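Page 37, continued from 36.
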């Protein structure tokens, strides 16, 4: 059996923000969904990547729909956005931001009916190839204990826990994970991808 060819689209800022805001509407499990304005505000003026995986709808019409997405951006030592400044401060005991180029996995998920089909791995591999080419040293991501699907996935994608912030309710404890980047990361990639840009 031949492996699937994942369809990936990389978006510029304005269009990408609208697409992400649209797809997040499908995720009732997220407490707060991002608006296009919030996404633009966060990404404008910094290096970012907006990726979306598309897949055919099951009705054989040939139509494709967005099924999975991943938004990442550079995380710099001197952040002025309060949320990002807080994130950098929390991680500064484990990451030396001054000597490394750090990519932050901000948003990402796969629609329920398309989970377990490799879309998120394909997006992650495409992101890693880009990040290595852009000279990033490290990818970091934040989740919580209660997000078991995401934790299992990050495990499979070879992210390591770099910090735990315990909460009164252990399900709410924050888990920070990281993955060191370099050409060696690309050797472990296995998805076949067809990427459209713009
Ligand atoms: C986590 C999530 C993005 C995975 O997307 P997906 O498209 O189903 O992932 P993939 O099919 O590409 O799987 C990637 C790898 O993770 C593994 N994986 C996927 N779901 C998993 C799960 N629930 N438990 C353990 N491992 C899992 C797969 O086996 C695969 O590993 P492999 O390639 O080595 O076989 C998806 O389940 C999701 O959107 N969940 C909700 C997101 C969420 O909870 N966000 C909260 C904020 S962090």
């Amino acid at each position: 059996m031949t492996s699937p060819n994942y369809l990936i689209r990389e978006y510029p800022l304005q269009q990408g923000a609208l697409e992400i805001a649209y797809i997040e509407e499908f995720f009732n499990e997220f407490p707060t969904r991002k608006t296009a304005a919030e996404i633009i505000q966060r990404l404008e003026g910094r290096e970012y990547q907006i990726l979306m995986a598309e897949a055919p709808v099951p009705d054989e019409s040939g139509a494709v729909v967005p099924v999975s997405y991943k938004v990442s951006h550079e995380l710099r030592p001197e952040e002025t956005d309060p949320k990002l400044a807080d994130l950098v401060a929390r991680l500064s005991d484990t990451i030396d931001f001054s000597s490394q180029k750090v990519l932050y996995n901000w948003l990402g998920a796969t629609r329920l009916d398309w989970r377990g089909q490799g879309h998120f791995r394909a997006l992650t591999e495409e992101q890693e190839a880009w990040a290595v080419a852009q000279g990033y040293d490290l990818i970091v991501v934040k989740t919580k204990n209660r997000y078991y699907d995401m934790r299992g996935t990050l495990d499979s994608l070879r992210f390591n826990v770099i910090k735990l912030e315990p909460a009164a309710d252990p399900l709410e404890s924050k888990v920070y994970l990281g993955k060191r980047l370099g050409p060696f990361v690309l050797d472990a990639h296995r998805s076949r991808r067809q990427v459209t840009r713009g």
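The mean pLDDT is 95. Flag for discussion at group meeting. Residues 68, 108-110, 115-121, 143, 147, 149-150, 152-153, 156 surround coenzyme A (CB under 6 Å).
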